[in-house]
Every structure is written in C-alpha cells, then in structure tokens.
Amino acid sequence: MNLTQLLQEHSAAFVKQAYGLDLPAKDIQIAKTDEKFEGDLTVLVFPLVKITKQKPQDLSRQLGEYLCSQQPNLFTQFNAVAGFCNVSFADACWVDYTLAKLENPAQNLPHNGKTVLVEYSSPNTNKPLHLGHIRNNLLGFSVSNVLKAAGYGVKMVQIINDRGVHICKSMLAWQRFGNGETPQTAEIKGDHLVGKYYVRFETEFQSEYKKWQQTEAAQNLLNAWLSNEKNVLKAQKEIDKDKEKAREKENFNEADFSLEKYFFKEVYKNTYFNEQSELGAACKKMLQDWENQEPNVIALWQQMNGWVYQGFGETYQKLGVNFDKLYYESQTYLKGKELVEQNLAQPETIFYKEEDGSTWIDLTAAKLDKKVVLRGDGTSMYITQDLGTAWQRFQDFDMDAMIYVVGNEQEYHFQVLFEILKRLGFKFSQQCQHLSYGMVNLPTGRMKSREGTVVDADDLISLLIEEVRKESQERSTLSDLSPEAQQAICEKVALAALKFFILKVEPKKTMIFDPSQSIDLQGQTGPYIQNAYVRTRGLGRKAAELQATLANVTIPADYQLHAAEKEVLKVVLQLPQAIQTAAQTYNPAEVANYLYNLARTFHRFYNDVKIVDKEQLAQTKFRLNLAQVVADTLQYAGALLGMEMPEMM
Q1: Which of 296, 330, 344, 582 sees the fewest Cβ atoms within 10 Å?
Q2: What is the 3-state secondary structure (H, E, C) of 419-482?
Q3: Sheet hosting strand 370-374, strand order edge to edge
C-alpha cells in the first residue's frame, strides 16, 4: 500500500464529489507534516483554492472532514491549518504499508521518458586524482543515481583532458629528466609517476623564472609597474588579505608578501611563460607538434596517457564509480575547431580575427567579455574543445538536459560556453546546466597540484581504511572473522565514511573534510548510519531460534502501533519525497540527511522498545518486519550515495 497515493486518490475523490471537478490524483500535492503539528502526511490545499474558489482554511477543513467521515478505517483524524490539511492514518494502514514494503522494497519512481546526461570526474592526464576529484566523482555518481531513482534515463560520461599545455609540461619534464623511468621501474601507479613530472616541471620553471627576475629586463618591468600608483594600491589590498590569512600558519614569513613577489607571481608569471621562458617555448612547441601529429610526440603522449588511464581506473574502482561513455579532448577539440571555422566562413559570423591571426568572440553584450577561441598559431583553447564536446554529445544522445559537475572556479567558463552555443544557434544550449560545487579542503588548508601539495585520493582512501582498521581492533568486534573478511568490512566502512561526509554537504558550499570526524560512530557520519543497518542484521540473528514459530504468527488487524514504531515508519515513508527533491535540485545532501534521520530514528526505536520478546510474538514479528523494512531502505538509499552496508562492523 502506497500511503501517499492513497491520500492523493481520496483527496481527488473529495474534489470530484464536492465540486464536480475531475482532477488527476497525481496532481494532488502531498508533503510530510510539519513537526509542529500532529499528522502523518499533509495535503497542500493552496493549489486547489483557485479551481474550487474556496478559502484555504475552509477547504482544508472540508477535505479533512470528508476523509475522516467517509474513510474512518483509513484516516483517523485531521487538523486544518490555513492551506494545509494534516492527516493521520489508521494503524491498520501502517501495518499494511509495512507488509507491502517487505514484499516490494524497490523505491524507484516510474520512468518519466526524459534522458539526462551527467558529466563528472573529467580529470587532466598530467596528475593523479586528488581530494577535489573525489568530491566531483561522488557528486556526479550520486546525482546520476538519484536521477535514475526519480525516473530519468541517465547517461554518465566524462571528458578526459588529455591534451594542452599542462599535458605537455609533464611530457617535457619526463623527456628531459625522466631517464626512461616507468611505473614498473619506479614501483608506483602510472598517474602518480606522471604527476611527479608535472611537479618537476614547475620546480624547474620556478628556478628558471627566479634567475630571470634578477636580470635588468625583469627589474625594468617591475619598476615600470611599481610606478603606476593604481597598480600598487590594488596589489597592496590583495597582499594584505593574503597576509592576514597566512599569519596563523607556522611557516608564515613577512618577506613573502612584498610588492616585488606579488608582481612576479600574480602579474607577470603567465606573460613570462608565454614570451620569455625557454621551458614555456618548448611546451608550446610540443603542443604544436602534437596537433601536427609529429610521430615522436604522439608516441610519448600515448605512452604517458596509458600510464595515467591505468592509474585512474584503479582509483575509480576503489570509489565505486563508473561511466557509460568516455570523451577525449584530443578528439573533440577538432569538432570545436570545425564549428568555429564553419561559422567564420559565413557572411554573418559571430567570430572575428585579430592582427596576430587569433580568433575571438565579443560577448560584452551578454556582460561576459571578449573571448579567444583559437590562438594565432591555430591551436585550440579549452572553450573551443568544450564547444565540440557539447555538439558531439547532443548528436550522440539527443538528451533533455546535460549537467556539468565542475567546481565553482569555472562558473564564468560555463557562462561563456552556454552563450557561444546559443549564438551558434544550438537550441540545446538551453538544456545545459552547470552543477557548481565548492572546494574541499583538509583542516590543514588548500591544495596546490603544481607544487606537489595535493591530497592524493589513493592516499586518503588508504588512510581512512587504516584508521577504521585500528578502531576495529580496539573494539575487537571483528576478531572472529578472517583477515580478508575484516579487511572487506573496513573498506566498506571507510569508503562510506568518506562518501557520506562529503555528500551530506550541499554542493555549492566550500567544505573541510576531517578524516577523524568522518569515521566517528556517533553523529552525522557514514558509520553511524551503517551501524543502524548492522543493528537490523543483529536482530535477525538474535531472533533466529524464533523464526520457525514466527512463521505461523499472524499480525492481528487491530494491532496498535507503539509511538516509536510509527515514528520509524513515517521516516521510511518520506524517502520518495527526498529523492524527488534531490533530483530537482541536483543535491545528494537531501538523501544523506534522510539517511541520517532514518538511522537516528531507528537507533532511538532500538533503544526505547523491546523488539524480540518471546511472550509477545505478534509484536515481535511486526517489529522484526519493521527492522527489515528499515534495513532495505538504508541499503537502497545508501546505494544512491555509493555506500555499502556491512553485516557487521
């Protein structure tokens, strides 16, 4: 029995009988009852006011009186509060609902005929996945799961950033300093090896740049910049902000916050890389050679990318995420160039050429700015390859919506992308959405991949597993199991801790991931939720000797629910609404909060009432049934976030 549908059907019958209006039952809006009022579910009467021409309070009262007088075996009482009719179900309804959930624990809503494409992960092949990638992957995977549960067809994809200057940095550093090192000879994952040379490039570049800063040419540029009072005032404000943030750190050094250091780090660094740096010139030459398909460069690129893909695959497997289709920038950038070149050939092109041969688009009318789409040497920009990728995807899937799961530092990029797609005449530009999320840091601060201070995804997962293993050994709860079984449980608990801690935070918020807090058995954590599931399994083991007897026990029609039983069932009932809200807002935190509420309510039930009682067999059977419903619901909702539920912990 679906209690929400039951209330919808009888509410629609009221509208038909009282006002002669045929209203589809599914159009009756139902919500959970506000905790301030008594009731199990609430009919939102406001949408019915216009068509019935009644006052909200009067209509709520009329509906409640109808339900309780016409169906007293289903609805026991109501209270009308303005445009809300709060309704209480008879205990028999809850018993039937529990049995129905036992027989059919599936929670997926009917397919709505719409397809959504979700892009997530989308790493660069010049470094391993880090903590930021973990949040990206977990958000993308869980949003995909939630959309599927809400009735959407979902395609999970990623675009692999396998070309560009940043890729060439790792390649050039390995070529110059690698001495033929491979993942096998170094005995490390391939993505870690390539990331090592990305950091090495930055080290060598900084050394080169530091030497150049002492030259007369560099000092002349610095002095010219310092002579501009506007430049200095603006820079000093930024320096003072950075200095204030850094004072709390142990390695704070006043000398790091001079105008000279600011100029060479924030103002001139990119210009130096593009115009004076030998390493920068070598990188750009390598990128041109790559686009011209120079055999040696292509061979090196394929070799190093192969190392990275193998490493990524291992990390994805640990995280439990997957994809339906992979796109590669090394292929889609050609599509983007084709779009630009085709439009340039048209009389009313949206692009224009500069004297250096570069191609631009003026988006100032959309309050965005002017944007380069092709460099003077003909090589593509990121925006160009994203144009090609979007075009290719809609050709492949013709979906109803495309969601880009990308950090909030790229918000401007996606505004530009969607505006260019719109000006190119693609209607699908209105179907593109950016799921922007905040940065995730450790209590120690932010990460910088070029400086080698990233929080590596593999290392973090290993750390959490080891911490869970230590906790388990102290509690001796798994000592009877084999080492392999203990390890499997520790991995489930550690990964659930990681996933829940990250996904319980709304995507837009910047967050701090605290490893020690995430594995705590108390509070809003993954292990706390898993422990509720473990308790349901323990009840089954505790009642094992009663199973044969209970099989012949019938729960009476007049079974009276304990308040704690009803509270648990009311939370179970709320899952479809949590899924719908999470799908509408692309916010898995709705499901995470639901899981916590269910676990907390079940823990309270577990502690407040006697569940297995040999003297009360009907009660015992119902409460064991209830525990099984909770177990099924925890398992289902947890899987939406990628969490697995262990039998023991």
Answers
A1: 296
A2: HHHHHCCCHHHHHEEEEEECCEEECCECCCHHHCCCCEHHHHHHHHHHHHHHHHHHHCCCCCCC
A3: 351-353, 359-362, 370-374
DSSP letter at 37 equals S
Residue 529 to residue 310: CA distance in whole angstroms = 33
d(CA 101, CA 631): 11
CA distances to 540, 586, 615 from 131, in Å: 38, 21, 53
Task: Estimate to the nearest angstrom the gap between the alpha carbon of 341 and the chain centroid.
Answer: 36
Residue 551: exposure state from Cβ atoms within 10 A (0-12, 13-18, ≥19): exposed
pLDDT in tens, 552-586: 999 998 999 999 999 999 999 999 999 999 999 99
Show the domains of the chain with their CATH numbers: 3-89 (3.30.1360.70), 164-293 (no CATH), 453-640 (1.10.730.10)
Q: Is 369 helix (H, G, I), strand (E, B) or coil?
A: coil
pLDDT in tens, 577-615: 999 999 999 999 999 999 999 999 999 999 999 999 999
The CA-atom distances, in angstroms, between 307 and each of 188, 334, 460, 529, 620 are 10, 24, 21, 37, 57
Which pairs count as long-range contacts for 47-53, CB under 8 Å and 24+ apart, including other chains? 48/15, 48/23, 49/83, 51/15, 51/19, 51/21, 51/23, 52/15, 52/18, 52/19, 52/21
Measured distance CA(370)–CA(116) in Å, rounded: 31
Parts of the chain with a pLDDT under 70? 1, 444-454
Cα dihedral 200→372→380→390 (10° resolution): 110
What integer pLDDT is reported at residue 445 of this predicted model? Answer: 54
Contact 388, 339 (CB under 8 A): yes
Residue with tokens 């995420």: 321
The pLDDT of residue 381: 87
Task: Report pLDDT for 167.
Answer: 95
Reading the block at residue 336, the tokens are 């983007």
SS3 357: coil
To which residue do tokens 């906790």 refer?
Answer: 471
Closest by alpha carbon to 409, among 447, 380, 376, 377?
447
SS3 215: coil
Could you tell me the pTM of the whole model?
0.90
Rg (C-alpha) for the chain, rounded Å, is 30
Q: d(Cα 478, Cα 381) in Å, to the nearest integer?
A: 54
Token duo for residue 609? 């009432």
Between CA 292 and CA 111 the distance in angstroms is 47
Q: Give the H/E segment covering residue 616.
A: none
Q: Give a three-class secondary structure readout of 52-107.
A: HCCCHHHHHHHHHHHHHHHCCCCEEEEEEECCEEEEEECHHHHHHHHHHHHHCCCC
How far apart are the C-alpha atoms of 235 and 252, rounded to whole Å?
Answer: 19
CB contact at 8 A, 424 and 350: yes
Q: What angle do CA 246, 249, 254 make, to 5 degrees?
A: 55
Residue 585 CB partners (closer than 8 Å, separation 6+): none
Q: Which of 319, 317, 311 is nearest to 494 (CA)?
A: 319
Length of the chain, please? 649
Please tell me the distance from the alpha carbon of residue 305 to that of residue 418, in angstroms, as a whole number.
29
β-sheet bridge partners, residue 512: 441
How far apart are the C-alpha atoms of 632 and 645, rounded to whole Å? 10
Question: What number of H helices and E strands is found in the chain?
Answer: 26, 14
d(CA 183, CA 189): 6
